């Protein structure tokens, strides 16, 4: 708690007024996440703050990072240990996405991508090609990924998934091998694997910066409460309503970020 002092003059008398100001900084958000039991999200944001050297995405570099084979990304900008599919599968966006991608992965683009992956392995009629048998997600992303599906929405419920991932990309990779049957080259799929690839950033292709939410030291407002807060905050509300809002939302801070501190 900080004390802000101001001095006013009234006739010949000096009066000092002290106002208590409670500051809330962006690096205090993980503590609020911990308080809400968002442990995975808190770990992710703390990792974001810890990255050295700092770097920033642009819209273009973000697209490149998402579309580049993971083996080509600097290890200092990659993390595999915080977001796990065993955690992500709890959320409807992921479960529904997996069901849809399992059904649609063999689209024209998916088959074309599979052919590209096979041909990268110097495929010949005489030799079998095995794809997707690595345990490294970086190698799977580079050599076995065949299709993608965007999942998540800015309109989703505010929960730990929304705090950690929001909008992201679900990918599918294949495990299998080529074989020659009746004079034709056939690829036999043994298994499908699903994983997420995302950039932890706040680069927004819209004209307005992305809101990180309305936070206090203990929580974040849900969508309904945030809408009420913003509508009254921006409308120049009358005194009676202002008092109600201050009681309901005291110690809450609206935070916007512009992508200057980002990680992959």
TrEMBL record:
InterPro entries: DUF6402
Entry protein name: Uncharacterized protein
Bilayer-crossing regions: 227-249
Keywords: Membrane, Transmembrane, Transmembrane helix
Top-level taxon of origin: Bacteria
């Amino acid at each position: 708690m900080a004390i802000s002092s101001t001095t006013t003059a009234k006739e010949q008398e000096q009066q000092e007024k002290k106002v208590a100001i409670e500051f809330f900084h962006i690096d205090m958000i993980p503590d609020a996440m911990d308080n809400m039991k968002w442990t995975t999200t808190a770990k992710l944001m703390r990792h974001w703050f810890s990255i050295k050297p700092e770097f920033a995405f642009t819209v273009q570099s973000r697209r490149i990072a998402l579309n580049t084979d993971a083996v080509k990304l600097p290890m200092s900008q990659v993390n595999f240990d915080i977001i796990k599919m065993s955690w992500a599968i709890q959320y409807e966006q992921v479960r529904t996405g997996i069901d849809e991608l399992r059904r649609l992965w063999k689209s024209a683009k998916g088959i074309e991508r599979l052919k590209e992956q096979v041909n990268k392995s110097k495929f010949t009629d005489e030799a079998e090609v095995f794809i997707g048998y690595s345990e490294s997600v970086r190698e799977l992303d580079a050599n076995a990924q065949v299709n993608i599906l965007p999942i998540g929405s800015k309109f989703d419920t505010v929960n730990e998934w929304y705090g950690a991932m929001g909008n992201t990309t679900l990918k599918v990779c294949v495990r299998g091998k080529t074989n020659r049957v009746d004079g034709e080259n056939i690829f036999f799929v043994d298994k499908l694997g699903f994983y997420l690839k995302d950039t932890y950033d706040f680069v927004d292709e819209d004209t307005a910066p992305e809101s990180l939410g309305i936070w206090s030291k203990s929580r974040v407002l849900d969508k309904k409460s945030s809408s009420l807060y913003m509508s009254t905050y921006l409308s120049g509300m009358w005194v009676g309503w202002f008092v109600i809002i201050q009681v309901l939302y005291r110690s809450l801070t609206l935070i916007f970020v512009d992508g200057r501190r980002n990680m992959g």
